[in-house]
Amino acid sequence: MIDKIKGHIAEVESFNAKTKDEIEAFRIKYLGKKGILNDFFSEFKNVPNEQKKEFGQVINELKTTAQAKVNSLKDELDKNQEEKGVYGDLSRPAEPVEIGSRHPISIVKNQIIEIFSNIGFNVSEGPEMEDDWHNFTALNLPEYHPARDMQDTFFIQTNPDILLRTHTSSVQVRYMENNKPPIRTISPGRVFRNEAISARSHCIFHQVEGLYIDKDVSFADLKQTILYFTKQLFGKSKIRLRPSYFPFTEPSAEVDVYWGLETETDYRITKGTGWLEIMGCGMVDPNVLKNCGIDPKEYSGFAFGMGIERIAMLLYQIEDIRMFYENDLRFLEQFKSAL
Ligand code: PHE
Name one GO biological process term (predicted). Predict the structure, then answer.
């Protein structure tokens, strides 16, 4: 009998359990009311007197070993669960991290900024809600000037003096008012025009306008600057300037870049001509310089302006301007690899 109990002690010592249920079953088997220990205890009275002492000792040893085993297994289980609470399962695979992407308008805007900052242009910004002076009057567009109709304007409530800027030329007016020449600045930003929304135009879009004012700035400087820009951005080195009209520049021109006629798409987007219009430009009108506190006898300059959406549509072959504003992930995710 004593050997049997010693066998149990060895079994208890080598026992191991991972779950609460296993430990509980073990506890009941040894320490429960109808458990092995109680069986032995009830045997006690039948043990011959000379063996009682030893029997008592081993049976007590079995009891304390079993008790200690149950306690240590429970402690271990609790400890594991605590660690899980803090760290989770340390062996599980990592969660995949979704990498976001820049919006194509931001990508193109940053490219344009980079190209001009390489030749000394800084970036200036201004308010989207403007007054009449900065958006129109200072730019040689006095009240009732017919050219105001070129840009259909959103006014703020009933105050005709406050409006949503129709171009970022307003930022250039502010810049000239607050800085002395030489001036080399580009003004990226959001602009607003009351136009019907279609695949080609939207009532909210983005522009980058540029301004260069110094002594003896000529039309040749303007042309070289734009040529440098088109080479950098499109990798195209043929441009042409067509006479145009803007109230704030004289002379004014529209810039076309020679896109080529290599693919079917080239034919379609250039309407079979190979040429694409990309921006407006001209020599700053002396009246504008005067309005902004710069002496036109001493200084001259050029300005240009382009729509970021239009450039992005050309670069990425996007057919519909509305895609920029729908925030469809299937569209946006295509720009993950760009910048
Ligand atoms: N402000 C003009 C527009 O929004 C663009 C432009 C800027 C043209 C500077 C000439 C010179 O259409």
Answer: phenylalanyl-tRNA aminoacylation
∠ CA 273-274-278 to the nearest 5 degrees? 105
Q: Read off the pLDDT of residues 246-296 as tens digits, 9 standing for 90 and up.
A: 999 999 999 999 998 998 888 888 899 999 999 999 999 999 999 999 999
Note whether 194 and 331 are within 8 A (CB). no
Angle at 193 between CA 191 and CA 198, to 5 degrees: 110
Token pair listed for 234: 């499109």
**Residue of minimum CA distance from atom 2 in ligand 1:** 305
pTM of the model: 0.73
- Pairing mode, strands 249-258 and 239-246: antiparallel
Length of the chain: 339
Long-range contacts of 217-220 (CB under 8 A, 24+ apart): 217/283, 217/299, 217/300, 217/301, 217/302, 218/300, 219/251, 219/283, 219/302
* Single-letter amino acid, residue 71: N
Q: Which atom of ligand 1 is nearest to the CA of 307?
A: 4
User: How far apart are the CA of 207 and the centre of ligand 1, in A?
Assistant: 9
Compute, in angstroms, the gap from residue 124 CA to the centroid of ligand 1.
Answer: 16
